[in-house]
Amino acid sequence: MRIELVKRPQRSKLFAAISPFLAFLLTLLAGALLFAILGKDPILTLYTYFVEPLTEVWSLHELAIKAAPLILIAVGLSVCFLSNNWNIGAEGQFTIGAITGAIIPLYFPEWNSFAVLPLMLVMGALGGAAYAAIPAVLKARFNTNEILTSLMLVYVAQLFLDWLVRGPWRDPAAMSFPQAPAFPSWAILPELFPSSGRANWGIVFAVVAAVAVWFLLKKTLKGFEVRVIGQSPRAGRFGGFSTAKTIIFAFLLSGALAGLAGISEVSGAIGRLQPVISPGYGFAAIIVAFLGRLNPLGIIAAGLVLALSYLGGEAAQIAVGVTDKTVRAFQGMLLFFVLACDTLILYRIRFVRTAVSPAKEVSYGHG
Amino acid sequence: MTTQGTRAMRKLLFALAASAAMLVAGGASAQEKVKACFIYVGPIGDFGYSYQHHQGALEMQKNIGGEDKVEIAYLESVPEGADAERAIERFARSGCNIIFATSFGFMDATNKVAGRFPDVKFEHATGFKREHPNVSTYNSRFYEGRYVQGVIAAKMSKAGMAGYIASFPIPEVVMGIDAFVLGAQSVNPDFKVKVVWANTWFDPGKEADAAKALVDQGVDIITQHTDSTAPMQIAHERGIKAFGQASDMIKFGPETQLTSIVDDWGPYYTQQVKAVMDGTWKQHDVWGGMKEGHVVMAPYTNMPDDVKKAAEEAEAKIKSGEFNPFTGPITKQDGSEWLKQGEVAEDSVLLGLNFYVKGVDDKLPQ
């Protein structure tokens, strides 16, 4: 017997609605099986993974901290991806945003003013946007492959940060260990509810950005332009839209949001520049963007789910004793099932007996 | 499909509620014994740095009386950013009595969380910040072992040149390179060391590339300050000798490993967890070496007897406290004098060390 994917004449509304839940259910079943094979109590493990992190207030704060950069970056990426611009370099734009945002507290540490923090955030966003402009201009002018240029610029940014914190920006009080001086208190992104946890304004920026970009995409001409150019550049040109301008627009917006995420992370959760400031948020955000189906509001949910899977993974390691590798495999399963179930929106499954040759009119699923 | 789904969902929800009840009930009985928690920067399967910390944790548990006395929890591969603070806080909240943060990059996070949980003891490896009375720092004088390795390298190498795979240009690593060179020069004053910066603690691919590059430059001994076994395996392939790192890597290079500096954290962890049990834990800054049993040399293998003898002599001298590897005269790489005849480097200088001694064929990244 063979299993075939047959393209549906139109997207299935039913599967569009239930596929995330179906995926979650399949993940639970496969996860329970995995944990049982490893000799861990599957129910307890799943509880620790998905429920326990949500039962405590401090943990909700941590969820917000983890989700904020993912959502901010992914929202920007959705504009890029919808307009057919494959910005893989958000991690680099995040890093540069953190660097440019840190200029004021590092060079003018004495300047104590309410204007410092907003300026830092603006400079972070500008830095990220400027860095994203490099692959954008290269693509718009010379038609270079933005996947390669944006990706390679990630390593440039990371090494630049590494050099800064080991060299010119090294904290003289740190006994030649690689880190920049801590930000003064007025350059730290305030916590929202300091009495119960350390969640900061980053999550607010993320939600505001998501709503704003959602509005931009759904309700404005610019959003229409982005989507038309993404689906058919030729049709866009007939409509009088400029592909080059859209490339620049998408990259600048996405870079600015990644840069904002970078300075928010450094000024909020970390408090200083150091060699490593991100566990790969810029790359994980690509997954978040697609999990949220490139819809900014969906991305909020997707960002929270992915953040939960990190927190839950940690909780499970401590409480149940599953290993780090198992946790990652489980996280991979979650993503796999989500993307696999989304296939059912456009395709249906057909079981074919091998003895019978496939009918000629069957179209195989290749996109 | 949908009804089946709901049924399964209902079952799961019921099970979740039941397990939640179990969790609450189970928590009360487990308060008498001590819970010791460990945060590792790498995977415990690296057979290097994090592996050794974990071995130390297991040894501690065995020494104190097994699972009935000490419960162990750990997190592997914790990134050194905002995640570290959450991981440490989770430990503090989950009933850990003492938390060992085993990498330099956890320094700020450890101190922040320590301020919020004054009743929990925190131990930070390789750092220098103790902002609260419940934070101690601990480290080992690995450079003592590096000196012995240098002696062996100079005796064994026909090229008069060794390759050094380094991780990051921090004092800990620079100290190791300098001690290695000083040990080698005590045998052969013209001995050279080539350094490759891998910019990682654990990346078998990068470390293997670094090892290959060094062999291609003509070195016939490799030593490393990164945590994987890859350089040992490359050395074996190319038929040269190498030193293990952090753990005894002899099974990865039975004909290759000369010796290895073994980080033995077991005695320290045992002592500190016991102190928590007795209520005698006090803040301190410990920098133990061979004398305290924190730095142990793996058996000397794959070398002639006279080399083995020289290595054992150097080890004995350091162990007895008779000799410190950083004893003058020592000249800096730029030719200026660092230590006069008989002068011994201060610990405070070593902990911030940011220059090479003469004989290192590399420019220290600044």
Stretches of chain B where pLDDT is under 50 for at least 5 consecutive residues are 1-5, 18-31
Task: Give the distance, in angstroms, between the N- and C-terminal Cα atoms of chain B.
Answer: 63 Å
* Biggest sheet character of chain B: 7 strands, mixed
Helices of chain A, by number, come to 14
| Helical/strand content category of chain B | alpha/beta
Rounded radius of gyration of chain B (Å) = 23 Å
Pfam families (chain A): BPD_transp_2
Organism (chain A): Pseudaminobacter soli
InterPro entries (chain A): ABC_transp_permease
GO molecular function (chain A): transmembrane transporter activity
Short description:
Chain A contains 14 helices and two strands; from the N terminus they run E-H-H-H-H-H-H-H-H-H-H-H-H-H-H-E. Chain A is mainly alpha-helical and about 375 residues long.
Overall description:
The complex is a heterodimer of chains A (367) and B (366). With 367 residues, chain A is mainly alpha-helical. A two-stranded antiparallel ribbon of chain A has the order 1-2. In chain A, α3 (57-82) packs parallel to α8 (202-219), α4 runs parallel beside α7 and α12 (281-291) crosses α13 (296-319). Helix content of chain A is 67%, strand content 3%. Chain A has 2 domains: 1-40 and 322-356, no CATH class; 58-176 and 188-308, ABC transporter involved in vitamin B12 uptake, BtuC (Orthogonal Bundle), CATH 1.10.3470. The model of chain A has no long low-confidence stretch (mean pLDDT 91). Chain A has helices at residues 13-37, 42-50, 57-82, 90-101, 103-107, 116-142, 146-166, 202-219, 221-231, 233-238, 243-270, 281-291, 296-319, 324-346; strands at residues 2-7, 347-352. The radius of gyration of chain A is 23 Å and the shape is globular. Chain B has 366 residues and is an alpha/beta fold. Chain B has 2 domains: 33-140, Response regulator (Rossmann fold, 3-Layer(aba) Sandwich); 142-263 and 294-361, Response regulator (Rossmann fold). Chain B has helices at 2-29, 49-64, 82-93, 107-116, 142-156, 171-185, 204-216, 230-237, 266-278, 305-319, 347-351; strands at 34-39, 70-75, 98-101, 121-125, 135-140, 161-166, 192-197, 221-224, 241-246, 257-263, 285-288, 295-297, 330-331, 337-339, 360-361. Chain B has a 7-stranded mixed β-sheet, sandwiched between helices. In chain B, strands 2-1-3-4-5-11 form a 6-stranded parallel β-sheet, sandwiched between helices. In chain B, β3, α4 (107-116) and β4 form a beta-alpha-beta unit. Chain B is globular.
